[in-house]
Amino acid sequence: MNEESDFERICLLCAEPRVPSGLTQKGRFFCQTCQREWILEKRKIPRVGKNVLNSEEKTEFLLENLSLFNSSLGLEDLMFRFSELIADRLKKDKIAIFITNLELGEIKLAHYYSKQKYLQRAIKRFTLDYDLSYGILVEAMANREPCFYKFSDQTHPFYSFYSKLTGTKSQLVLPILYANIAVGMITIDYDEEDPTEYIEDEEILKIVVGQFAVSLRNSLLFSKSKNQSKHFRSLHTAALTLSQLYLNNHNEMIRMILLTLSGIVDSSISCLIEYPIDSSKVKVFKVYRDLDNYELKTHTDSIESKELTSILQTKEIMTIDPIKIPILGTLGIVGKESIIVPVKLENGTICIFILAKQDTRFPNEEIEALNAFVSLARITMENSNLYQNLSNKERLEKEIEIAKEIQSNLLPRHAPEAEGFSFGGFMVPARGIGGDYYDFILSPNRNELFVCIGDVSGKGVAAGLVMATVRTILHSLVRVKDSPWEILNDINNYLYSSYKEAITPRFMSMILIRWNLVTDEVDVSGAGHGNFYHYQVNQKSLHSIETGGVILGISPDISKFKNESKLQFHAGDTILLFTDGVTEARNASEKQYGEPSLEKSFLSNIEFEPKKILENIYLDLKAFVKEQEQHDDITMVAVRKI
């Protein structure tokens, strides 16, 4: 009989002495306590490896990490503190944190911790495509499972490069999972191919990696929010600058536009190809930004239009690998991804904006900000043409027409493809360009639907610019904010900070409704817009729902006006949202159309589809006011659950 009893065998995983149910190859056993095949060691003293923690130590380690996760650290500080904590606990020197961006299809090395400072300098940030050809790293992310592997087993050149640079022979990989989605991964580098410590390292990391995932996600969202805020400020500043300057200096105007664009999307090169309809040549403006050395260079050239035929025929915005369009390389536009945005001016001039990123791709929020700014840039270029070629009166009329067209493109052209709903939207501006706004926004995963209506103070071009910018903000915020009130609060922050010192402050009322298409929950928040109507088909009754809140842009803090309510919305029910341009429309006797007339018209048309309901209400309104001039924008939205 062995000198050591079977009960003196200790499981390195659970630290309990139990009789294994069987012996397998190379000293691996099935532990009856933790129900896994693992390494068992014979020990006379019940102890485990140097890093494995007992229950009390695990609790202490968890609390030590909680103090980190509950702090308000930025992304860089969070990764440094966490890797330092893990390195100290595991007695390891080389720890890497990767961050996943599924939208861009990439995995980026965001932080590398090592006491060997030359390694931290040598391993600058690099990016892997989210492609299984990269081997085990991407497979671990895709499978959402920890793994240990040897670099010698991997065929992709990345592993050979990494091994030579760091001296790594093997690596432990733990995906960082939030809601079962991989937001990143932690790796520990080993200088040997078969270290026995990785089992213990994995178990210790598992204790805190879930909490780190929450903290990392929150920090990433905060960073994304800061980027969006930067985009909003850039848009606002650019709108003011471009509307006041450069109208009589065409080349400087173009350079300013390109410089602002490159700042919005952090591109290394921005280019505008300008092709007048009556010319055989195109003018090419380029701005180069050295993001590392903060250097800026501009270049202007003139080339034959036939050399750029393929690009000049572009009709829609597109992102592409520059190498697939050889002429881009000829123009000096190189990198990992380029975005091409075509614009045709009123005088027939074709303008093609091209931007490039060296090492990454364009995320959705940058593309949205880019689209919004290009719309503003188009107005400026049109205004510049008008300034040079038209009389004051003609220029003003043309400006309004251009802005009206652009604004109409910002409103929903088609109803969203939300199964089980029918939509109607209607707006008639009072002065060609309106300050009213409505929208239907379906989330990319089709799980949420946002419906809104709003009214900007004032009318004309100024109100239209505010409306366009608020639309861009709203479309960005619905991707990252969980409640309508949080979105309204952020829009208030933008309006107040942007216009508090303006000669003419800008305010906006709004109602924002969020449908959870999975749970059928409906959340409503208001910002001083008043009420809307809810027709309940089962009861054959119409209810006026007051939303409350305060008008956005008046106060820096609207938290005390917070309002959130739930709406029971059943099959056959219909809601009607409207602006005060409907109820305050006046006839020749100065009598207002009023809510009673609106309610009556709504009920008398309730059997029709939402779009037809709005058309008939407008016909009733026009019959009431007759030939009287319209003094305010008329906007209505109707939604029915089928």
Automatic annotation (TrEMBL):
tRNA-binding is among the record's keywords: no
UniProt superkingdom: Bacteria
Domain GAF, chain residue ranges per copy: 74-226
Domain PPM-type phosphatase as annotated: residue spans: 418-641
InterPro entries reported for this sequence: Bact_Sigma-Reg, GAF, GAF-like_dom_sf, PPM-type-like_dom_sf, PPM-type_phosphatase-like_dom
Pfam family, one: SpoIIE
Alphabetical UniProt keywords: Hydrolase
Descriptive protein name: SpoIIE family protein phosphatase
